[in-house]
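Quick log. Single chain, no ligands specified.
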Amino acid sequence: MNRRSFLRSLGAGAALTGAGAAGAHPTVTDPATPPEESAPDPLGTLEVEAAREAVVAGDGTVYVAANDGFLAVDAADPAEPTVLAERRGIPRDSDAGQMRDVYDLSVAGDRLLVVGPANPGHDGFHGALLYDVSDPTAPERVAAHETGHPIHNASLVDGLAYLAGTATEGNPLVILDAASGDEVGRWSLFDRDDAWREVAVPLRVLHDVTVRGDRAYLAHWDAGTWILDVSDPEAPEVVSRVRGRDPETLADLDVDEATRLPGNDHRAAVGPDGDLLAINAEAWAVDEDDGRGPGGIEFYDVSDPGEPVRLSRIDPPPTPDPTRDGVWTTSHNFQIVDGRCYTSWYQGGVKVHDVSDPLAPRELYHWRDAGRARFWTAQRLSAGEAFLGSSMDVPGEDGASGGLFTFPDPDAPGDSRESAATPSTDGGPSGAMGQSTGGDSTDGTGEARTLGLLGLGAAAVGAWTRLR
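-> predicted structure:
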């Protein structure tokens, strides 16, 4: 029996129950958290005003987006991260003015891509800046490309800049030659189906793009996550859609739905081999008792990218107030590398899971201090030594400033607290395992098939592990 037929055959009687707007985040007024034990304290910290995304270069250098610019940080010694260079007020020579809302950046070799503004409503430069960071102590701008539209997130791969076309008709994926600025290609939901034009933008916005090899993974909020073949970047093609609701359903919903579950595909990323896909939801409750937020992370087998299979999920940490005015513990940015998933949960802290068996994620580490940190991302710094989290400022009179935290990379899974996979509350409508639950499955755009732990015995889990 081949592997995928085996996965389908596991499904008798088991199912996952499927269950908001991209943009600037509101102020949190209550930093209190429920009592709980915390993991060992951070190894080191570095205050960074207005810290947002952080990315790790291969030499221990970390680049941190910082609202009106970025910093290069030496974190080779995790106990003493130090600033190598700081570029604020960028670009300084633009007639359009300076870039604001710098939330995202991407590093590839000796090139760093810095994009912004992340959200509409800002004056100044809108576009992508490319820096030579062969000497991280002296980043040198080598290209500036004005796009005329905001860019919430981006990915730099093989000399191409894959940009989220925020506040542009169709919210397309825009692909530029990073050096010349020439547009290479673009794709939007409108290319797929005109029915998406009837859906309010906050419900279908392209929030995040991740590219690995010939595949681009587009997190399109309530419209789900779309996998594209970008082997020919001039003509991206749909491979499949994971999660999400159809345009006819979304067209009837109010934009307020964009803050709530189900939906809210915020980020999609794969591991180094491209077989394991994780998708998270960023969501809040309307009120403390509505039971619809915050969002977690789901894992999918995409070894056949045309037929994703849902595997398991990680729940968000608890919060005393799940509303947008409360204590945020919804999932935010994360990374999968070498069988581990490094995750950030705003005031819910940072976590590390062993996902070498993606049917049963095992929690290895969890640190949170809601009055001290609101984590934007978590990334591995050095295998077996350290990982990092970048933190926004914590609002309130006594709130902490933003910054960079380094943590010990946890040891053997035998010391971990195992957390069983649980029924999904983040994804789109669910169905029985082995059945497509929506969309046009004949052309690869149907809902991902589901493989849950509910009803699966040790033999099934062991079989998965052997097949992997």
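Residues 185 and 235 are 6 Å apart (CA to CA).
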